[in-house]
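Sharing a chain and its predicted structure for anyone who wants a worked example. Both blocks are below, sequence first, tokens second.
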Amino acid sequence: MKDRSTVDLIKERLSVNEVISSYIKLEKAGKNWKGRCPFHNEKTPSFFVSPERGSFYCFGCGAKGDIFSFVEQFEGLDFMGSLKLLAERAGIPIAFENREKKTERERLYAVMESAAIFYQSQLAGEALEYIKKRGVKDETISEFRIGYVPEGWRHLHDALAKKGVSDADMEKAGLVKRKAESSEPLVPGKEKNDSVLGTRNSGLSHYYDRFRDRVMFPIMDSSGRVIAFSGRLLHNKEGEGKYINTPDTPLYDKSAVLYGIDKAKGEIRKKDYTILVEGQMDLIMSHQAGIKNTVAASGTALAEDTISHEAVTNNLGIIRRLSPNLLIAFDADAAGRNAALRAARIALNLGMDVKVADIEGGPSTGSGHSKDPADLVLADPENWKNTLRHSKPVIEFVLDGILKEKEATRLDPRKLPPVIREKMLPFIAEVSGSMERAHWIKMIHDKTGLSEEAVRDDLGAYLKSKPAHAASQQAPSAANRHLPQVRLDIIARKLFGLLAFAEKNADKVAFDPKRYHDEIKAIAGDEYQNIIGQVEPLKDELVFEAEATYGDGHDISMELAELMVNFEGDVIKRKLAQAMDILSAAEREKDIEKSNAAAKLCHELSKRLTEVGKKKAID
């Protein structure tokens, strides 16, 4: 699959702080760098990057690794995806030396790439005219690799078969379907044209193309690999949907990708907001108009959390890491608006700042109001840009919609409160922070005259009855799910971290770490082995933590002395609590011998605890 030297060469050319700082803001912290962790919400930076070690570690959530694991977790990629992305950045070609031993995923990526090339080669005639009529330029067609598959049952299948691709791999990639051998012809009367499918006993393959007579839009992962397709029907046919998409496959999880993310992510980071549109054409035309921080939901499914139960980073989780700001611009029809509001609620719950563009109320194109972003761009790219400029926070957008509807239908003012409760409170409830909620409650009062107190009371009642949202019960990240179940307390973490740091930097410290371990063993007694068992799996993290705190060369002897006293005090307190439990049980059972022994132990431990307290006072 790969030569280890390829990975090493990439690491030599790309420093860990250079890679990570291209995703998040880092600040110098001694010989390390620190920032806010992109894998969990935090206000105080607990994410450290060590150029010396070539790794990162978050003391808040436990995320850790090197540049490859960071890119995997941040971009939602597998290892090969991160390798491809970083190799391209480092200018290093990836060589597959043993193609016979390719993994299934690698084979499927190759199959999808071959399919994309085939579809591109077929884009001509009516299909090309359709794309051009929609305003797409030649360079844009090439950039987004738009293709076409003609009418017929086996065009792609036969092309891939000639390249040696197996039916099984085509099916696993979601490109073909299998026709049951005992079934009747797929389309009566087509036997002459499609003879391989028209008879039960043809003896030939019973696989046929999933996509037929469709304009094909490749869906790429964050590293630019083709993982799926969305096909738009060129000629309307009864019973066939306008769009069909690749089903979930080993490569494609529709909730873990957004169309165009590979081309938009750089601009999203640069502009600090994402534009989310519905369709492929909306995205393509937006990019063509220069608005390249646009992604599309078409062919995907918006997940209601950032991490799936399989520890896969979901689509909104990826763009939230790129920027917490989201602008939704879906079609102006009822279905589009409903989908936009559903996406907005999910994004609000994930802690994003959400705006919505009013497509229907946007600038006129001269022939009435346009219904989707692609039409706006086609008429005049400035129409699209102006519509984005006039976007509104989602809660204001919802309220303005209610008031427009009220005016149009002459709604009885007495019926307004139930409408506000039904349509607005679910959005305000997703906003975290009392000040933010107070702002929106005041806006409702200002625009409707409804009492702020009444709105606040109704919101409180709604919050009490609101079920826990899926996004608030996120599965652990891939980094977190492998952490040990039992964690050391903060004093033990610092103490053993300093000792591990001292062992690694023996030439820089003026004491023997072994002496401290002997003292710890004497203090902990029977607990020592249990503590060491917890320390060993965490040793790298503990060293990293100590380096981040004490790695600037200052003397750590004072810190160690204080930690030893605190550690001893903690151990004695735990033993004293256990002894008191035994004493209580013995007294209940009226076991005088056991009671006396426990009382004596409690007295001894209390005396030791007092002595430790005196040490603290002296220090």
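Comments welcome. The chain has four domains: 4-90, 102-181+205-245, 264-471, 484-618.
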